[in-house]
């Protein structure tokens, strides 16, 4: 049996899929896998670190505003469709699993033409445009938030299931003691982890740098700066450690963190929630703000929305968290109760059941 995965654009579209693959391998080691992603996207680099074969195709983004690129990207989508069709015909997978992103759309449409069963996972609060374009072809749609089903078109609700967001199993093995030993000089210090997503986040990076003059020795900040790392590396100092990306040390680092400052991608929220972290979210407009707002209403996170993201507001939010142990524990506990930590295993089992029909 063979399963094709598709999706890309950000790590949030790739890592959850890899978590499902790992869970499936544990259940049935005989299954083969492949991944279809954008030929110039970051997903190829991520898959290059795994044993899952990667196939690159052209991809185009449909923008909901006037842009000349909308015209050229239509041709990229068409080309990507035929490339995906050839890949699927050549590899003959028994099922296609889509994690979303615009590269997934031509793959889903090609799979439908090839009469391959299609499963979709939506991480965010509401179905994104790519998944809305794919939903009609899907046999099952898994979602991270229960309200996603209520917001969806009635014609899709019967095939939607709330199972949560897949989480990388390796992160759950993080060791708090090892992480704190690696980054702190004194045990009583508080560790703030700043994660701007797989591509980094300039707005968050700039806020952190502006905050540094007011930071006390009681606080240690470890900061993933992303692809703009060279701009922020010169600010490195005692108690502030900028780094472009984290690899093997990430699990211990998250486990060690007292506060995590992050964008509000659903994949990251699920992982931090599973590890019971107190979150300060700085969402982008759109789906991320929807994700953050729902969690804030549940009193599970603190949020600094785009319109509020001044240095003064940021400092106030950070100070409130680092000086309130009880609040941090309450946020971490509440968020953990909203997370379904076994999503990847449950999704993997449903896929296996489908393959065995």
Automatic annotation (TrEMBL):
Catalytically driven reaction(s): di-trans,octa-cis-undecaprenyl diphospho-N-acetyl-alpha-D-muramoyl-L-alanyl-D-glutamyl-meso-2,6-diaminopimeloyl-D-alanyl-D-alanine + UDP-N-acetyl-alpha-D-glucosamine = di-trans,octa-cis-undecaprenyl diphospho-[N-acetyl-alpha-D-glucosaminyl-(1->4)]-N-acetyl-alpha-D-muramoyl-L-alanyl-D-glutamyl-meso-2,6-diaminopimeloyl-D-alanyl-D-alanine + UDP + H(+)
Keyword Transferase attached: yes
UniProt membrane topology term: Peripheral membrane protein
Domain Glycosyltransferase family 28 N-terminal positions: 3-142
GO biological process, one term: carbohydrate metabolic process
EC primary class: transferase
Keywords noted in UniProt: Cell cycle, Cell division, Cell membrane, Cell shape, Cell wall biogenesis/degradation, Glycosyltransferase, Membrane, Peptidoglycan synthesis, Transferase
Binding site for UDP-N-acetyl-alpha-D-glucosamine: 10-12, 168, 198, 288
Record-listed E.C. numbers: 2.4.1.227
Signal peptide: none
Gene: murG
Intracellular or extracellular location(s): Cell membrane
InterPro entries: GlcNAc_MurG, Glyco_trans_28_C, GlycoTrans_28_N
Protein name per the record: UDP-N-acetylglucosamine--N-acetylmuramyl-(pentapeptide) pyrophosphoryl-undecaprenol N-acetylglucosamine transferase
Pathway(s) the chain acts in: Cell wall biogenesis; peptidoglycan biosynthesis
UniProt-listed HAMAP family: MurG
Gene Ontology MF term list: undecaprenyldiphospho-muramoylpentapeptide beta-N-acetylglucosaminyltransferase activity
A GO term from the CC aspect: plasma membrane
Main location: membrane
Protein family according to the UniProt entry: Belongs to the glycosyltransferase 28 family. MurG subfamily.
Gene3D superfamilies per the UniProt record, alphabetical: Glycogen Phosphorylase B (3.40.50.2000)
Pfam families tied to this protein: Glyco_tran_28_C, Glyco_transf_28
């Amino acid at each position: 049996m063979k399963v094709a995965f598709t999706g890309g654009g950000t790590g949030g579209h790739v890592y959850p899929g890899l978590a499902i693959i790992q869970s499936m391998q544990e259940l049935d080691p005989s299954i083969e896998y492949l991944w279809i992603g954008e030929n110039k996207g970051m997903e190829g680099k991520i898959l290059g670190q795994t044993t899952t074969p990667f196939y690159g195709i052209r991809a185009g983004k449909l923008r909901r505003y006037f842009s000349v690129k909308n015209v050229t990207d239509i041709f990229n989508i068409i080309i990507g469709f035929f490339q995906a069709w050839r890949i699927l015909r050549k590899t003959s997978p028994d099922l296609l699993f889509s994690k979303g992103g615009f590269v997934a759309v031509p793959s889903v449409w090609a799979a439908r033409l090839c009469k391959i069963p299609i499963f979709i996972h939506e991480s965010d609060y509401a179905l994104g445009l790519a998944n809305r374009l794919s939903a009609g072809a899907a046999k099952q749609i898994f979602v991270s938030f229960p309200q996603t089903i209520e917001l969806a078109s009635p014609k899709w609700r019967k095939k939607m299931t709330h199972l949560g967001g897949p989480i990388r199993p390796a992160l759950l093995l993080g060791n708090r003691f090892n992480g704190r030993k690696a980054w702190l000089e004194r045990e009583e210090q508080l560790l703030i982890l700043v994660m701007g997503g797989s591509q980094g986040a300039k707005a968050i990076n700039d806020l952190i740098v502006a905050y540094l003059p007011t930071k006390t020795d009681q606080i240690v900040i470890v900061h993933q700066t992303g692809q703009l790392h060279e701009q922020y590396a010169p600010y490195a100092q005692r108690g502030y450690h900028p780094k472009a990306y984290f690899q093997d040390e990430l699990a211990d680092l998250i486990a060690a963190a007292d506060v995590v400052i992050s964008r509000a991608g659903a994949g990251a929220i699920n992982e931090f929630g599973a590890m019971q972290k107190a979150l300060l979210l700085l969402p982008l407009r759109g789906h991320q703000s929807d994700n953050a707002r729902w969690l804030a209403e549940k009193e599970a996170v603190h949020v600094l929305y785009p319109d509020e993201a001044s240095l003064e507001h940021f400092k106030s939010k950070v100070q409130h968290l680092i000086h309130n142990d009880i609040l941090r524990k309450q946020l971490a506990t509440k968020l953990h109760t909203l997370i379904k930590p076994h999503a990847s295993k449950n999704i993997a089992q449903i896929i296996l059941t489908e393959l065995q029909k």
